[in-house]
Amino acid sequence: MGVVEEAHNVKVIGSGEKIVVLGHGFGTDQSVWKHLIPHLVDNYRVVLYDNMGSGPTNPDYFDFERYASLEGYAYDLIAILEQLQFDSCIYLGHSLSSMTGVVASIFRPDLFSKLILLSASPRFINTDDYYGGFEKEDIDQLCQAMESNYKSWIDGFAPLVIGGDMDSVAVQEFSRTLFNMRPDIALSVYRTIFTFDLRHFLSRVTVPCHIIQSSKDLAVPVAVSEYIHQNLGGKSIVEVISTEGHLPQLSAPEITIPVLVRHISHDISTDAS
């Protein structure tokens, strides 16, 4: 195993000619895909990896400057794919990693046959002509709460994002992976995500994109999925699923997993016909 693979805890499982790469979002790690993996391994080679800064990675490898923008994550993804020597893959990215896939596909479109974007947003903060769901003051307050008491912040943040109470398995799982992050790294990643503006990248995307969105997501209003669809440079399709929360693959797998499998197995022209 190469240095890049080891640093990101890369795992390649399953069998099949086509390759599916799974990228997780903020506060989680590759375990967030546990409900999806059994549905893929018989037909695909599945690549799992952890974003730098997530709990299972070595915090000493986290470069605060590199990961102050999504380009750092995109270069990591490209490095993983190059080291594995894959010609092309289906990339399923959740939240942070959905936009990582968008940026990486602009740099290296040859590496991606299509992108599946789950709970994606190019910008979380509202502007005069764009509704991202948050005011800047909201983000500042959340960052202050993280700095003052990280554990207490998790107790409040996890149920809001998942859309459940503290007793739910999904909230407990998300709380666990959040707590595994070093607090200063979590704050840095959080600031990066909630202050980026990647809208200008969308028109440069040529790889087909499947946009999948919960009908009720505190972090990403449904209008954002339509915005992405309208502004992408290549073919795209949107599916809004009847789930609540930002991590439907964890909180509502019985609804979400069949949708993800269908988008992995069918291309846009097939879905649209």
Task: Provide a descriptive summary of the structure in words.
With 273 residues, the chain is α/β, with parallel strands linked by helices. The chain is 42% helix and 16% strand. The chain is built from eleven helices and seven strands. It has helices at residues 3-7, 70-84, 96-107, 136-148, 150-162, 169-179, 183-195, 222-231, 248-251, 253-265, 268-272; strands spanning 11-14, 19-23, 45-48, 89-94, 112-118, 209-216, 236-244. It has a seven-stranded mixed sheet, sandwiched between helices. Helix 3 links the parallel strand 4 and strand 5 (112-118). Helix 2 packs across helix 3 (96-107), helix 4 crosses helix 5 (150-162) and helix 4 (136-148) packs antiparallel against helix 7 (183-195). The radius of gyration is 17 Å and the shape is globular. InterPro entries: AB_hydrolase_1 (IPR000073), AB_hydrolase_fold (IPR029058). Belongs to the AB hydrolase superfamily. This is Esterase kai2. Residues 19-252 form the AB hydrolase-1 domain.
Sequence of strands across the biggest β-sheet: 1-3-2-4-5-6-7
Succession of helices and strands: HEEEHEHEHHHHEHEHHH
Q: Please summarize the sheet with the most strands.
A: 7 strands, mixed
What is the helix fraction of residues, given as a range? 40-55%
- Radius of gyration, whole Å: 17 Å
Count of DSSP-assigned helices: 11
Task: Quote the distance from N terminus to C terminus.
Answer: 42 Å
Number of strands: 7
Overall pLDDT confidence: 95
- Secondary structure class reads alpha/beta
What would the principal axes of the Cα set say about the shape? globular
Q: How much of the sequence is in beta strands?
A: 15-25%
**Poorly predicted ranges:** none
